[in-house]
Every structure is written in C-alpha cells, then in structure tokens.
Amino acid sequence: TGMFTFDPGFLATASCESKITFIDGDLGHLYYRGYPIEQLAEKSDYLEVCYLLLNGELPTAAQRKDFERGVMRHNMLHDQLMSLFKGFRRDAHPMAVMVGVVGALSAFYHDSLDISNPEHRRISAHRLVAKLPTIAAQAYRYNKGLPFSYPKNGLTYAENFLHMMFSTPCEEYKVNPVLARALDRIFTLHADHEQNASTSTVRLAGSSGANPFACIAAGIACLWGPSHGGANEAVLKMLDEIGSVDNVADFMQGVKDKRYKLMGFGHRVYKNMDPRAAIMKQTCDEVLNELGLHNDPKFKLSMELEKIALSDPYFIERKLYPNVDFYSGIVLSAIGIPVSMFTPIFALARTVGWIAHWNEMIGDPGMKIGRPRQLYTGAARRDFVEVAKR
Ligand code: CMC
Question: Over 80: is that where the pLDDT of 1 sits?
Fold first, then answer.
C-alpha cells in the first residue's frame, strides 16, 4: 500500500477540470459560467440558466426563443411510458419511480444514443430537461390516484410544472405568478453545484460510455440520500417531529450530543453562508407574505431554530450555517407541494447540471474511465481450508 493518496470522501482531491460552475466556499460565492448566482436568480429565469449551463454563454433573444421551442417540444412522454408508472405500487416514493422511469427513457430513444455524436448528445439533453418535470408530476399524480396530466404550451417551465401537478379534469390550476416565480428560483438555485455526490456519480457512470438516461438515473439515485437532496424532505420531517417552539431547547441538546443532525444546516464546501440560502430566505419571505402565512407555526419554529443555531458555539465553532434546503422546504410546502415531492423537484432542477457535466466530460478528448484505487486492509494471503476442517 502507500502507492495511492488516501482521500476518503474526496476532501482534497479534484476529480476533473470543469468550466461550468465555480464555488468559493470560504466567501460563500457561487457562479454559473462566471455569473454570480444572485444576478441570475434576480434577473434571469430557469430556462435561460439551462441554456447558459449547457452552452457556456447567455442566449441572444433569438437563441433563447429557439432553445425554448427546441426543449419544450420534447415535454410529452411516450404513451407507453405510462404503463411503466402503473407497474409501481401506488405508495411508492416518487424518487423510486423517477429512478426507474428516467432509466427506462433509454429504451425509447435508440435512434439518438450515439454519444460520440454531439447532435445526439444535444437532443438527449433537451429531452431530459423537458421530460423531467412531466415525469415528476406524473409520479405524484399516480401516487395520489389522479389521472395523468399533459404539459401545456404557452406556460413557462415552472408554471407548466405547477399546472401538471395540480390541474384536474374538472378544474384548471390558476397559476399564481409569485409562486411560479419562487419555484423558478428554486429550480435556478438547484441547477448546478459542481462536483457534488450526484454529479460525480453521473460523471463516473458516464465515463464508461453508458447512455445519458442511465447516467441521470444514477444521479437521481444518489441524490435521494438524506445527506444530499433528501435533506429538504428531512427538514420538514424534523420540524414535524419537534412539533413546537417549546421543544427546541431539548432538540438542540440532542443535536449537540450527536444523537441526530440539524437537517438543512452545514455544507461540505460552504464554511460561511450558503449564498443560495440567502436568496431562498428572501423568496421564502415573499411567498409567505403573498399567502399570509407568516404566523404559520412551522415557519415560526424554523425561524426559532435558525436563531438559536446561529448563536450557539457548537454551530459557530464548526461553521455550520443554514443551507439552501433549510428554506426551500418551507417555500415548497407553502406552495402546496407535498413533502415527498421535494427531492424530485431538486432532481428535475439538477438534471440540467448533470447533463452539462456529462456533456463536458464526453466532449473532452482526454476522457478516461473513472477508476478510483483503494488501500487494501483485508486478510493477507492464506490457503483455502476444506469445509470439514473449518
Ligand atoms: N447538525 C449537527 N452537526 C453537524 C451538522 C448538522 N447538520 N453538519 C455537520 N455537523 C458537525 C459534524 O458532526 C462534525 O462535528 P465534529 O467535528 O464534532 O465531528 C462537524 O460538524 C463537521 O461535519 P462533517 O460531517 O465532517 O461535514 P461534511 O462536510 O462531511 O458534511 C453535510 C456535510 C452537508 C453532509 C453535513 O453538514 C450534513 O449532514 N448536514 C445535514 C444534511 C443537509 O442539510 N444536507 C444538505 C446539504 S446542501 C444540499 C445538497 O448538497 O444536497
């Protein structure tokens, strides 16, 4: 042994070069293709950010229109995919359904799976960005027993998602622009985050030459864990468990005794405020104002938790600050999105980042299959012993 650098959890190893996203963890800054996340969240929208991540530049007005048309025309699902949903138990977690259905997309597009062909890669990226909201919404509807819904042209990406989630055959969902804008912002803030666990998973899966739908399914599977994309769901479950402001002190003692973690706090890279959390907090305020929910007990409880954590030496010493998921869960819940859909929403927003990284990697002529080494710590060489003699 000793031949390899030992770096479990990749605390000090760069796995690739990338031009897509830059994080300055000490300062708490995040840039997509050089643009600060604050400016994109304020002035741009999700589809434009998708174009930026995939192509490296902001689109002109004409490019933007073309891109929107080019993506949105792929937002329907092949009708035979619907029977796939029906093969799942009704109470299946929507993330389980998404892993399956997104993986299955590769069986529908055999004509465009030549990954050495940039045009095929572009179409796959458009298909994924367009179909993920439809797949997520149908996973929800199947679980609820609602009939499948269809995307509607003329709506924005976020409006369309709300429409597919909540409209019924007897009633059109009236999209509230403040809520649609908040959701669009959640999508933008989650669109990419350089080499996090799920993006690294997509790259590693893709490094073998696997097709993009299989790679994104692998990313979704990784994202599901509570230390990663599952955190937004875990935040709401935690708020439910704490129940009321009176129990916060006891709960915090349990965190400090390391019996459990304060979900929605801490980050591997940000050792200062997560800039996405600052934007999300403001959006949270806008949404709660719009809906008159400022006195909502769950919201009050989360503000109390935040206040106590930010002034507690345990958190200060360890540089633990709220991350994006601390607030996004509260916003989604105020919009009326059930907790089980929080991580699917993260997945649909992150798909563009995953596919941008996959494309960057495949397009690199120096690409090699990812193959980490190990330090072997098992038994030394020994001879086989017949079963009767063991
Ligand atoms: N609550 C209480 N203590 C914590 C927390 C927390 N949320 N996060 C870290 N710590 C402690 C940890 O126990 C350790 O203490 P000590 O030094 O005494 O052993 C110290 O802080 C350093 O933590 P770490 O586990 O070495 O940090 P990491 O970089 O390996 O983990 C993390 C980062 C995000 C997995 C972790 O902070 C965590 O589990 N947070 C809660 C889950 C969460 O909110 N995840 C969402 C991340 S943002 C969205 C995304 O990327 O998906």
Answer: no
